[in-house]
Each structure stands twice: as C-alpha cells, then as structure tokens.
Amino acid sequence: MDKFLIKGGKKLGGAAEITSAKNAYLPILAGCILSEKPIYLKNCPKYVDIINMTKILENLGAKVLPLTADGQIHNGCDIKIDCSSLSSHAIPHELASVIRSSIFSLGSILGRFKKAKVAYPGGCEIGARPIDLHIKGLRALNVKISDRHGYLTCDGTNMRGGTVNLDFPSVGATENIILAATLTKGTTKIINAAKEPEIVDLADFLNSIGAKIYGAGTSTITIEGVSKLSGGEYTPIPDRIIAGTYLIAGLICGGDIDLLNFKAEHNLALLEKLKSTGARFKTLNGVFNIKSDGRLKSIPKIETSPYPGFPTDLQAQILALQTVSRGTSIIVENLFETRFKHVPELVKMGANITVKDRTAVINGVDKLYGASVCATDLRGGVGLVLAGLCAEGYTTVNHVHHIDRGYYKLENQLQNLGADITRTSQT
Ligand code: UD1
C-alpha cells in the first residue's frame, strides 16, 4: 500500500491538462459490449477503475488493444475495443467486487445476449449504495431477475421497451437502462433521469455508432431500440471532478493555475460558489485561469445534489478548502449518508469541524498542521491531500490506492504545479 508524503505550504503555479473523465469512460467502455464492430476510444486514462473495467471486458472475451508501441496501456493512449466474439455473459465476484461500475455491464450484457449473470458490485465505501433502481429499471424492460448467492441472474428473452420512472435521478441506473434499452425492441422512456454530463456523453457515444437516444441531459430520455450498432471512434469528455480538484488545489495554497482541456460549463455549480470567496478566474484563448492571493472567504452554505447542483464528488475537496477559509461554512451531503469519513482526519490536522447526520459545520482556522491521516475513499482521500498541501509541516496520507482509482499519479500532476509531494510504497 502506497502513501503520500507532503510538505505543505508551497504556492502552486503552472498549467494542468485535464484528462478524460472516469465516470464517462466507464459506462462508455460498458457500451462497447453492445457493438460487434471495433471501437476506438481516445485518451484512455490509466486510473485503476478504468484498468479494472477493461479486465471485466476481457473476461467477457473482448480484446482491449492499447494503440501503443509496447501494447501496454499508457495514461492518455488510444485503445481499440473489439467485442466481435464475446464468449461469456457473466461477471465473477472477483472482478465485480472491486468496481461499482461493473453494474453498467449488466445492461450492456443483457442488450447483447438477452441474459446476464453479474456479481454484486463493489466500489467506494460511502454508504449503502443499493441497486434497487437499476433492478426496477431492467424489470420495466421485461427482464426477469433473480438474486441468489451474491449474483443477479437475468433473463431478457422477452425484453422490450418500457417506461421507467426513477424515484431518484440515479446516474448509474440511468446509464444502465440506456445501455439495456439501446438494442431492445420498442421505445423506452426514462422519467426523472439523471442529467450529468457523463450521461450526455454516453448517449453521444452510442448515437455516434448508430443508437437512437434522445433527450440526454434533460430529465426525460427516450431510447428507440435498434437492431445493431456499428464501430467508430470517440473521445470521452474531460474529468470535471479532477478539474475541480486542481482548481481547489490552486486556491487552498494561494496559487495561480491554468487548466487546459477544461469545460467550465460542466463546473458551473463550483464556479458559482467560488465567486464570493475572493478567488479570481477567467478564460483566455481557451485556457481557464484561477488565482488567489491568500486566505479566501468561507462559502456560507453548500448542499450536494444531482447535476446541475453541487457535485458530491467535490464535497471533500471544497470542505478541505473551507477548513482554512475565513468564516463559517455549512456543508450538507445529500447524496451519500456516510460521506464525511475525511472529517475526523482533517480534525487531526487542526480543522474545526462538527458533523451531525448529513451536515458539517466548518469554522475556518488560520492554519492546519501536518499529521498522519488515512484515505478511506477516493474523493475523501483527495480532500486530505489538498489539506496536506496547505498544512504547516509534513502530512502523510496513507492508503492512497483509493485515490489511484480515479487519478493517475496525482503526485506527478501536483509536483508539476510546484507541490512538494512524494509517493512511497508501504510494505
Ligand atoms: C455515480 C458516480 C459517483 C458519484 C455519483 C453521484 C460513476 C461511476 N460514479 O455513482 O462518482 O458520486 O454518481 O453523483 O459514475 N441509489 C439508490 N438505488 C439505486 C441507485 C442509487 O438508492 O439503485 C442512491 C445511492 O445510494 C445514492 C444516490 O442514489 O444515495 C446516488 O447514486 P447514483 O446517482 O446512482 O450514483 P452512482 O451511479 O453509484
């Protein structure tokens, strides 16, 4: 298990290029299962979750071919996915348990084979994360599902389009239903669908290879089933959560950072909140620049909510920023019930935070102090790294394998911006 050693207090400066979005790439990889023709995906990020998803595809019989001289996946390389001769419709426990996104493959495998056997998904430990909405959606498409011994066994022999009314705009359930409905006869309607940019990207990708999906990005999505998809080439969108992380990294250290390949329109909720803090940002010739000269003002209230609201995946990072801002901030986590596991670690560093149920009250302090802290999930772990960047003295962030799920060598990216951070392997 690796850990980061950070010497805090360095101002960050320079440029960071935003890599592809994990949460866009994963469902798109699952979508490749639906096509028998080769698909070329650009800019493959080497996050551990992506590598695990390619292993799931390979286990089904897909060929995942990095277009590199040595045939290995390098961060940012292009890959060819060939699902012409899949040999399995099952995802075993060993593969499904490490990544929650294995659940998207259920919709794709069903679409392709009209049957599937998938072990319960794993992923970050940030609450119960049930899959009832996924199951409800697939049942509305006339899939028969049994749930035994940790596996969902699905019979889609009589699949047909249907109407799915989601009780909550779940990102994963919306994606799973889109994937299941793409090759299913008839028209499927998803009401109260999630509107995240990653949903739009999945629909854009599938439409580019022949699907008929309308309304992605709104709360009603219509899918007209087609009989087959073609091959093609696609570039998934940049990662708005990584972009938000770098942006906050610059602010927490009083820095001056340029973001390349940044889509401000995907981060409006964050930018809106930062407006009142004293941070300065502008876009010039397609480059987004953010600056701060010192301690920012606290943001009075932040509530996480589905897109276009404030993303839960940036909650830990913005919370870290609030610990050293001037004033009091209230953060309400509406998406996941146990997503404040980073708080006790930040308190060890001198932060003044009280949590009751889903609400954290943060009274900004003059400074944090380095300590040995432990990442317990992906985004919470990154929040601790940000805190370490501005803390006095040395911070050790343990269990950085959580962070590697969604960032590729975060330490290198931060070093390029001037941070003093190194990775060491724990034995
Ligand atoms: C996706 C993102 C994750 C992000 C989350 C919310 C991916 C790979 N992951 O996760 O990074 O934090 O969206 O923006 O894209 N729920 C149910 N029943 C279900 C499904 C979800 O009750 O069947 C609940 C969850 O427990 C949670 C809420 O709905 O409280 C949101 O979950 P959902 O939108 O499904 O998130 P994920 O797709 O798992």
Explain briefly what this protein structure is.
The chain has 427 residues and is α/β, with parallel strands linked by helices. 31% of the residues lie in helices and 26% in strands.
Overview of the structural elements:
This protein has 427 residues and is an alpha/beta fold. It has 2 domains: 2-18 and 238-425, Enolpyruvate transferase domain (UDP-n-acetylglucosamine1-carboxyvinyl-transferase, Chain, Alpha-beta prism), CATH 3.65.10; 22-234, UDP-n-acetylglucosamine1-carboxyvinyl-transferase, Chain (Alpha-beta prism). It is 31% helix and 26% strand. It is built from 14 helices and 24 strands. It has helices at 22-32, 48-60, 93-96, 102-113, 132-140, 171-182, 197-208, 240-252, 268-274, 315-323, 343-348, 378-390, 401-404, 410-416, and strands at 2-7, 13-17, 39-44, 63-66, 77-82, 90-91, 115-119, 144-148, 151-155, 163-165, 187-191, 212-214, 220-224, 232-234, 256-260, 280-284, 287-291, 301-303, 328-332, 352-356, 359-363, 372-374, 394-398, 420-425. The chain has a 4-stranded mixed β-sheet with strand order 22-23-1-24. A 4-stranded mixed β-sheet has the order 2-15-17-16, with helices on one face. The chain has a 4-stranded mixed β-sheet with strand order 4-5-3-14, covered by helices on one side. Helix 6 runs parallel beside helix 7 (197-208), helix 8 (240-252) packs parallel to helix 12 (378-390) and helix 10 (315-323) runs parallel beside helix 12 (378-390). The longest helix is centred in the N-terminal third of the chain and has 13 residues, at 48-60. The chain is globular. The N and C termini lie close together (7 Å). 50% of the residues are buried. The model has no long low-confidence stretch (mean pLDDT 94). The structure holds uridine-diphosphate-N-acetylglucosamine. Residues 23, 26, 100-101, 127-134, 168, 170-173, 194, 198, 312-313, 335-336 line the site of uridine-diphosphate-N-acetylglucosamine.
